[in-house]
Amino acid sequence: MEKLRPDVLVCVLKTNLDRRILLEEKWYRVPLAHAPRRKPKFLAFYQGASFKDSGERIELYGRIKYWRLKKRKEILPEEKGHPRANDTYLQFFLSSVSRLRRPVLNRARLRISFGFTSLEKLRREQSIRGLFDIPPMDDILEAMLRKNKIPFKKEFIVKRKNAKIFRLDFALIGSPKPIDVECDGYRWHSRKQQRIKDKLRDEELKKLGWKIIRISEEDLLKKPSSVLKKIKKSFSLQRDFQNIGS
């Protein structure tokens, strides 16, 4: 199988002005401090939530024609009073700006910064996860627990007093108090109604003797060491798993 070349640099459009400049003048700026280590052939542009109906997606991209180094105040002379006016930027000029047949959507609302992908994947993938090969959140956490030899049961069932059940993402049993580790995807768990359900669920589990740890998708992807430290701090490793599943 031919290896796909990561020749597309994914950038971020922060404002409508940035988008207008891109479409009308066909250039984009990158702070030299954040310049890519390798030279891209294309730029693709992520539009954040501030773009509302056209936000949280990549829909525009273009081939790089040439680039140059310039001070910010030279690129944007009308903003000479900007705090970074004297900083050096890479100014990329594009031969054209095209629109993808289907936008690449950020359904999980992952935080996006500069990153490389291939032109083939940009045109093919429909999600940011697929574009950057980001596995599902529970797969990442499961791999972390296994690597650190923290025993767990996935999708562990807890019986409730009303004959119904709770299905836990990860149950860490072996410490004096059983621990429920929940993976909170941003889009789903940020909804008001779901937050209320989560709170009621947590309160009931606490009454049943469980400690609850909720891990956000952003923390797991951006600060995995902090997530691991949080879990280890709450969990005294004991290898006695004899009561699990009984």
Parts with pLDDT < 50 across at least 5 consecutive residues: 237-246
Overall mean confidence score, pLDDT = 87
The total of helices stands at: 9
Sheet having the most strands: 7 strands, mixed
- Give the H and E element order: EHEEEHEEEHHHEEEHHEHH
Tertiary shape: elongated
The CATH architecture name of the largest domain reads Roll
Q: Tell me the domain tally.
A: 2
The CATH superfamily title of the largest domain:
Hypothetical protein
How many beta strands in the DSSP annotation? 11
Share of residues in strands:
25-35%
Helical content (DSSP H or I, runs of 4+): 25-40%
The CATH class designation of the largest domain is Mainly Beta
Structural class: alpha+beta
Q: How far apart, in Å, are the first and last alpha carbons?
A: 47 Å
CATH topology of the largest domain: Archaeosine Trna-guanine Transglycosylase, Chain: A, domain 4
Q: If you compute it from the alpha carbons, what radius of gyration comes out, rounded to the nearest whole angstrom?
A: 23 Å
Tell me about this structure.
The protein is 30% helix and 31% strand. The chain is of the alpha+beta class and 246 residues long. The chain has two domains: 8-132, Archaeosine Trna-guanine Transglycosylase, Chain: A, domain 4 (Roll); 137-234, Endonuclease, Chain A (3-Layer(aba) Sandwich). Strands 1, 2, 3, 4, 5, 6 and 7 form a seven-stranded mixed β-sheet that branches. A hairpin with a 5-residue loop joins strand 8 and strand 9 (165-172). It is elongated and about 65 Å long. The model is unreliable at 237-246 (pLDDT under 50).
